[in-house]
Amino acid sequence: MTMNGLHRAAAPLSAFIAGVASLVAIGTAPAAAQQQQVPNGWFKACTKQEEVDICNVQNIIVADSGQLVTGVSLIELKGKVNRKVFQVTVPTGRLVPPGIGLQIDGGKAQKLDYVICFPDRCVAEVPLGDQLVASFKKGGELTLTSVNFQNQQNPVKVSLNGFTSAYDGAPLQQADIEDRQKKLQEFVKKNDEDFAKKLKEEQEKAKAAGN
């Protein structure tokens, strides 16, 4: 398939697999929000949709609020549709022409073009080949750089530690996926409680200073 052909097919494919095994509520993360990795980093989740078996090896970076900062997915479809794609998902408010820069360790950056934007996120996609997978297995860290609407670069670093075992290993069971979701919800709840506590303390300090 040519690159133009890929781009023509990418939008419906992205819509088809959007949200497959996704574990976070996606939104526009504040620029200054602290970034966190969902517990256990890389993981594989598999499902079946419309006579297609889908496996997604992914890593999701979220802000303290639980909102998406960057999602990385290596997706393989088998059955009625057979295709392998590499996707990076970022919040909206991005400049489209620059795309997303992909850099492995200190190597040369590769541009990923956006193929579709939803109201809450934009997705860049390229074919997933053996060379890219091998580079991930050998590498130590990904740097994914998008450009926001203020023309500022937003680099996000993703550790490749644990990628190989997730990619080559068995997918998570449904119970494990539900456990990850529960841990993420607890993580967000704790951060909300910590923020509320700090806010109350600051208000009390301001009130005491005013007296």
Describe it.
The chain has 4 helices and 11 strands, in the order αβββββββββαββαα. The chain has 211 residues and is an alpha+beta fold. The protein has one domain (3-210): Immunoglobulin-like, CATH 2.60.40. It is globular. The N and C termini lie far apart (72 Å).
Strand and helix map with partners:
Layout: H1 3-17, E1 35-37, E2 43-49, E3 52-63, E4 68-79, E5 83-90, E6 100-104, E7 110-112, E8 114-117, E9 122-127, H2 130-138, E10 141-147, E11 153-159, H3 163-168, H4 174-210
Antiparallel strand pairs: 1-3, 2-3, 3-4, 4-5, 5-9, 6-7, 6-10, 8-9, 10-11
State the main characteristics.
Immunoglobulin-like, globular, alpha+beta, 35% strand, 211 residues, seven-stranded antiparallel sheet
Quick take:
This protein is an alpha+beta fold. It has a single domain (3-210), classed as Invasion associated locus B (IalB) protein (Immunoglobulin-like, Sandwich).
| Proportion of strand residues | 35-45%
Coarse shape = globular
- What is the distance, rounded to the nearest whole angstrom, between the alpha carbons of the first and last residues? 72 Å
Helical segment tally? 4
Main sheet specs: 7 strands, antiparallel
What does the oligomeric state look like here? single chain
Please tell me how large the radius of gyration is: 19 Å
* Secondary-structure element series: HEEEEEEEEEHEEHH
Structural class determined from secondary elements: alpha+beta
Examine the coordinates and then state which fold CATH places here, giving the name of the CATH topology.
Answer: Immunoglobulin-like
Instruction: Indicate the CATH architecture.
Output: Sandwich
